[in-house]
């Protein structure tokens, strides 16, 4: 694996796509600090961005999400080749174009989102609802990579609300329109214990708390919130 040559290869694959008028504006955030006078093609821009952020997996993840969403057909039709070149950056992409990190020989987030959605699909969540939940969870990951902490927490909070509403209505038509009321419904039907309900509601409240802890980096605190939230959502999905 060679990050330099793999970045060039990926630039070449996606650079073949006819550039629309706004492509340079699309990548403007990722080209900050570059001497873009020499960037004369889309391939060169993509190559530059990938090399620039080769040691920043969160930023690469956000960029590839953008690239794949803009050029789904190219990504799909070159999936095996794209995956081959992504390995240099400890990244891979599934058939549905969801990106995952390769860690210690295994896949981590967002493969776990893919597994979560499969679990909920098997338990009756509609395709449209699955897409809404996918949007919130992947947006949260993207905002984490962009260091938009409040936006990340907001998306995780929405994901929680959406899943808890689905869970309460699946087991018993809940008369409450509040998250706390729906969690109480899950206790009443035996899905959650009181302690589990209290813990999930405390986490839900934490996601609206904008206060940072002195001496703790925002990145570390946000990663804690993100991981705790995703694992709690996965746990709740398995209980349903």
**Structurally, how many domains make up the residues?**
2
What is the radius of gyration computed over CA atoms, rounded to a whole number of angstroms? 20 Å
Share in β-strands: under 5%
Number of strands: 3
Structural class: mainly alpha
- Helicity, as a percent range: 55-70%
How many DSSP helices?
12
Which key features would you list for this structure?
mainly alpha; 2 domains; 12 helices; 65% helix; elongated; single chain; 240 residues
Structure description:
The protein is mainly alpha-helical. It has two domains: 3-107; 111-239. 65% of the residues lie in helices and 4% in strands. The chain contains twelve helices and three strands; from the N terminus they run ααααααβββαααααα. A three-stranded antiparallel sheet has the order 1-2-3. Helix 7 (111-122) runs parallel beside helix 12, helix 10 (179-188) runs antiparallel to helix 11 (194-206) and helix 11 packs antiparallel against helix 12. The radius of gyration is 20 Å and the shape is elongated. It starts with a helix and ends with a helix. The mean pLDDT is 80.
């Amino acid at each position: 694996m060679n990050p330099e040559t793999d970045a060039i290869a990926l630039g070449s694959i996606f650079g073949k796509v006819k550039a629309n008028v706004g492509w340079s504006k699309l990548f403007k955030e990722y080209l900050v600090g570059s001497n873009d006078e020499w960037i004369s093609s889309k391939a060169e821009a993509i190559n530059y961005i990938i090399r620039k952020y080769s040691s920043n997996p969160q930023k690469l993840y956000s960029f590839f999400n953008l690239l794949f969403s803009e050029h789904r057909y190219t990504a799909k039709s070159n999936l095996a080749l794209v995956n081959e070149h992504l390995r240099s950056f400890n990244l891979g992409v599934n058939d549905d174009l969801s990106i995952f990190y390769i860690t210690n020989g295994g896949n981590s987030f967002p493969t776990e989102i893919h597994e979560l959605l499969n679990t909920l699909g098997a338990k009756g969540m509609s395709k449209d609802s699955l897409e809404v939940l996918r949007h919130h969870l992947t947006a949260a990951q993207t905002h984490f990579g962009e260091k938009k902490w409040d936006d990340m927490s907001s998306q995780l909070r929405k994901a929680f609300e959406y899943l808890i509403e689905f869970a309460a209505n699946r087991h018993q038509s809940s008369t409450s329109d509040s998250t706390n009321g729906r969690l109480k419904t899950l206790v009443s039907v035996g899905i959650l214990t009181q302690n589990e309900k209290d813990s999930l509601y405390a986490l839900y409240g934490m996601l609206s708390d904008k206060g940072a802890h002195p001496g703790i980096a925002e990145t570390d605190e946000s990663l804690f919130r993100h991981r705790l939230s995703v694992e709690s959502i996965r746990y709740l999905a398995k209980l349903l």
